[in-house]
Amino acid sequence: MTETEKLRNRLNLLLQFGEVVYKETRLGKLLELIAAQLKKALDCDRCTVFILDKKTDELWSKVAQGIQDSEIRMPSGKGIAGEVATKDRIINIGDAYGSPQFNREIDLITGYRTRSILAVPLKDAGGNIMGVFEAMNKNAGPFDSDDEGVLQLISSIAASAIENARLYERLYQAQLETIYRLAMTAEYRDQEDTAVHLKHVSAYTALIAEGMGLSEQEIENIRSASPLHDIGKVGIPDAILLKPAKLSETEYAEMKKHAGYGGKILSDAASDLLRIACEIAESHHEKFDGTGYPAGLKGEQIPLYARIMAVADVFDALCMPRVYKQAWPPEKAREFIVSESGKAFDPEVVKGFERMYHEIIKVAAGNKQ
Ligand code: C2E
Ligand code: SIN
Ligand code: SIN
Ligand code: FE
Ligand code: FE
Asked: How many CB atoms lie within 10 A of CB 245?
């Protein structure tokens, strides 16, 4: 390859890198992506992105090919990565084992043999060190000054993507916390019971969605939005909501308004999550055969998330004691769900429920007492 071709190649890789990396907002996935792209750009065997954990003063990494999904942690002053992080400088060495700074512990864990190593600091927009980029074992010869330049460039793009992902995660966490707190206020009968019910329906809906083969994004959507399904119960008078007995016909009619109230409370939201929560709140008591409330929607007229919610909600309501009824044994609740396939429930959702029943029952058993 001529020098010009090489340059053009690298430029292309850099352009691609920015495009690919900015789309990913999940930190773990982002780090994997960055490492994979780096490997390509530098024609090397392995890349590690270390993130500085200021609380514990450690450098941690999830991206260690070979030992999948495990996390590496080391004190922030240790090894070549530590030197780069504390001294804010680039280190480029051809023979790692000949360097007194090299920390062999990680090689010992991974069974990997590091030869050449190029490490640069990862800095945020304010110039603060966020972590370290390491490229290991270049395929042909040691890393050169071109490689250093590429790694520095990529590192600054990656740093802003990482900051972005962290910000996004923090916002998402704040949103989830708000959702839980909001949902808790709606059903204040027994705070502990409510918390358990919310955790259960959150886990059940996610498991059912998984059993139906929905995407990761859809699974997370319903996991996060489902706790709000009964938010409309804030509008139901205590005398009805807290009644420790069967409801009269008029009381039950009043109670059923909670679905419409929930839909109103959550209507016209700007966030995707609240829009999904709105569908769920409004339609979780619709039945597949059209005999539910409030609108009597039928089949696929009922939003998919609400069809999933219905199964999770009824299963948990049956398995838990209520002021007006005893808890059912899970096996009986399962039979009920299956017997309502095609009537109250979407058969595809029931199939998803059946497929994941083993996991669902673990959640149910975990928090009962
Ligand atoms: P929930 O207790 O969370 O129950 C949710 C859904 O689970 C119910 O929706 C119903 O479809 C199902 N479910 C709950 N318990 C039973 C049961 O013993 N047998 C059967 N076959 N299904 C059951 P539904 O009926 O639309 O009720 C909505 C909400 O109204 C309930 O939420 C609960 O808060 C309240 N509610 C319903 N009936 C009574 C009652 O007799 N007394 C009181 N105090 N509240 C009631
Ligand atoms: C080091 O930074 O000293 C070694 C880290 C590694 O092997 O990944
Ligand atoms: C689907 O609803 O996408 C398929 C569910 C199934 O295989 O049961
Ligand atoms: Fe409800
Ligand atoms: Fe519920």
From this structure: 9
Please indicate, yes or no, whether the overall pTM of this predicted structure exceeds 0.85.
no
Q: Please indicate whether residue 233 is annotated as part of the active site.
A: yes
Name the active-site residue from 87, 233, 257, 368. Answer: 233
- Token output for 101: 């700074």
Count, in order, helices (H) and strands (E) of the chain.
15, 6
pLDDT tens, residue order, the chain (369 aa): 777 887 787 778 777 888 888 888 888 888 888 888 888 888 898 888 899 988 899 998 865 555 455 677 888 888 999 999 999 999 999 999 998 889 888 888 778 889 999 999 998 888 889 999 999 999 988 999 988 988 888 888 888 888 888 888 888 888 888 888 888 877 665 556 788 899 999 999 999 999 999 999 999 999 999 999 999 998 899 899 888 889 999 999 999 999 999 999 999 988 899 999 999 999 999 999 999 999 999 999 999 999 999 999 999 999 998 878 899 999 999 999 999 999 999 999 999 999 999 999 999 988 544
Domains of the chain: 3-167 (3.30.450.40), 189-366 (1.10.3210.10)
d(CA 260, CA 34) in angstroms, rounded, equals: 46
Best mutation site among 210, 288, 348, 353 for ligand 3 pocket (most ligand atoms within 8 Å of CB):
348
CB of 76 closer than 6 angstroms to any ligand 2 atom: no
Contact 99, 76 (CB under 8 A): no
Q: Is 281's C-beta closer than 6 angstroms to any atom of ligand 3?
A: no
Separation of 164 CA from ligand 2 center, angstroms?
26
User: Best substitution site from 51, 80, 84, 87 to test ligand 2's pocket, by max atoms within 8 Å of Cβ?
Assistant: 80
